[in-house]
């Protein structure tokens, strides 16, 4: 297996989360010559540019400040308590937690009473 | 929507104190059932319930503070008192284990060979991994302070970087300590030396994990724009806790690792 270390440099554009240089460990096919290496390098550069465009646009979307939206949602005068005010997911999670709580209560009572009663050995 | 004529926070009715109490019941009873009947079901159920309770309770606190604006200055003052008192209680928790260590090590019994470390115990070299661990935690104290100043100065990117670095250092400490535990030439069953060593350092390690988790939550919140340069108490609480963890390690290092060898 032939391995080659390529150091790729990119220009740091404004408002993009990019690295100034990227270290890439590449596995080369056996018997690859200089021509193949250059082609592979070109492919990698293209891939980088595409991923950079994709990453930066999604990154910008992900890092948007959603606090004002949340503030509006949680300050809505709908009478809901804070633990259910987020929507359906809140209700599902609450029901699951309460179900486990009730079941757990019953199970612990059973387990402790069973542990407390002497068992006759057959 | 605000109908109150005061600055204090009258919380909405919440189910989490109940679910948390039941979780504690299930965990403790589950521990007893595990010891006597080899079944971990009850204890596992308790742990799941505990995790669910913690997630939802603290999620609600974030909603009340960041999204509903309930954390006014007097409320924040109360939260500060609360965190300080909690950390103080943790200090007393560790004081007990240090008391146990000094009780046994200052006057070693004839059963130990009348010496400390006891006969047959090869202690860890304090100038190897333990010293590295000390450097790691001290460095993390610097990075968390850097994060705090970055938040106060509105330097978003630096705050994220320094907070991430703090967490990485915490994880590095945990990994190193786990490796030390695996490689140690003595175990928890090796008399009072083993007991005091692993219980004290073990509880400390647990607190490092808790502190790292707290900081990780703060990192997520910082990324999501929850903190402002004036109001970021969640982060401050995490930073106080982290400094406490650091100081406990320093005492552990000097007492158990260094003097105790």
TrEMBL record, chain A:
<dbReference type="GO" id="GO:0006123">
    <property type="term" value="P:mitochondrial electron transport, cytochrome c to oxygen"/>
</dbReference>
<dbReference type="InterPro" id="IPR039297">
    <property type="entry name" value="COX7a"/>
</dbReference>
<feature type="transmembrane region" description="Helical">
    <location>
        <begin position="92"/>
        <end position="113"/>
    </location>
</feature>
<keyword id="KW-0560">Oxidoreductase</keyword>
<comment type="pathway">
    <text>Energy metabolism; oxidative phosphorylation.</text>
</comment>
<dbReference type="Pfam" id="PF02238">
    <property type="entry name" value="COX7a"/>
</dbReference>
<dbReference type="GO" id="GO:0002082">
    <property type="term" value="P:regulation of oxidative phosphorylation"/>
</dbReference>
<dbReference type="InterPro" id="IPR003177">
    <property type="entry name" value="Cytc_oxidase_su7a_met"/>
</dbReference>
<dbReference type="GO" id="GO:0005743">
    <property type="term" value="C:mitochondrial inner membrane"/>
</dbReference>
<comment type="similarity">
    <text>Belongs to the cytochrome c oxidase VIIa family.</text>
</comment>
<protein>
    <submittedName>
        <fullName>Cytochrome c oxidase subunit 7A2, mitochondrial-like</fullName>
    </submittedName>
</protein>
<keyword id="KW-0472">Membrane</keyword>
<dbReference type="GO" id="GO:0016491">
    <property type="term" value="F:oxidoreductase activity"/>
</dbReference>
<keyword id="KW-1133">Transmembrane helix</keyword>
<keyword id="KW-0999">Mitochondrion inner membrane</keyword>
<keyword id="KW-0809">Transit peptide</keyword>
<keyword id="KW-0496">Mitochondrion</keyword>
<keyword id="KW-0812">Transmembrane</keyword>
<dbReference type="GO" id="GO:0097250">
    <property type="term" value="P:mitochondrial respirasome assembly"/>
</dbReference>
């Amino acid at each position: 297996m032939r391995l080659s270390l390529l150091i790729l440099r990119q220009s740091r554009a404004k408002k993009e989360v990019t690295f100034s240089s990227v270290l890439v460990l590449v596995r080369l096919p056996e018997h690859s010559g200089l021509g193949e290496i250059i082609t592979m390098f070109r492919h990698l550069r293209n891939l980088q540019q595409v991923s950079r465009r994709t990453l930066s646009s999604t990154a910008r979307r992900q890092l948007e400040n959603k606090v004002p939206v949340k503030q509006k949602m949680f300050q809505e005068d709908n009478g809901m308590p804070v633990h259910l005010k987020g929507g359906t997911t809140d209700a599902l999670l609450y029901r699951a937690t309460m179900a486990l709580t009730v079941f757990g209560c019953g199970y612990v009572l059973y387990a402790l009473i069973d542990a407390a009663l002497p068992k006759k050995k057959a | 929507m605000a109908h109150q004529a005061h600055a204090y926070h009258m919380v909405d009715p919440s189910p989490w104190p109940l679910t948390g109490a039941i979780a504690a019941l299930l965990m403790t009873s589950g521990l007893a059932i595990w010891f006597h009947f080899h079944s971990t079901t009850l204890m596992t159920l308790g742990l799941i319930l505990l995790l669910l309770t913690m997630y939802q309770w603290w999620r609600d606190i974030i909603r009340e503070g960041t999204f509903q604006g309930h954390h006014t200055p007097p409320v924040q003052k109360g939260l500060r008192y609360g965190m300080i008192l909690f950390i103080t209680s943790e200090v007393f928790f560790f004081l007990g284990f240090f008391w146990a260590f000094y009780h046994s090590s200052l006057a070693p019994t004839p059963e130990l060979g009348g010496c400390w470390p006891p006969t047959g115990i090869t202690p860890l070299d304090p100038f190897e991994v333990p010293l590295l661990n000390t450097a790691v935690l001290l460095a993390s104290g610097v990075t968390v302070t850097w994060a705090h100043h970055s938040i106060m100065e509105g330097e978003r990117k630096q705050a994220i970087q320094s907070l991430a670095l703090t967490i990485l250092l915490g994880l590095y400490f945990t990994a190193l300590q786990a490796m030390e535990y695996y490689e140690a030439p003595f175990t928890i069953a090796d008399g009072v030396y083993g007991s005091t060593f692993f219980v004290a350092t073990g509880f400390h390690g647990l607190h490092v994990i808790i502190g790292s988790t707290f900081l990780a939550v703060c990192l997520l919140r910082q990324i999501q724009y929850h903190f402002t340069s004036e109001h970021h108490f969640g982060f401050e609480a995490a930073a106080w806790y982290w400094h406490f963890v650091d100081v406990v390690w320093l005492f552990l290092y000097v007492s158990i690792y260094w003097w105790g060898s």
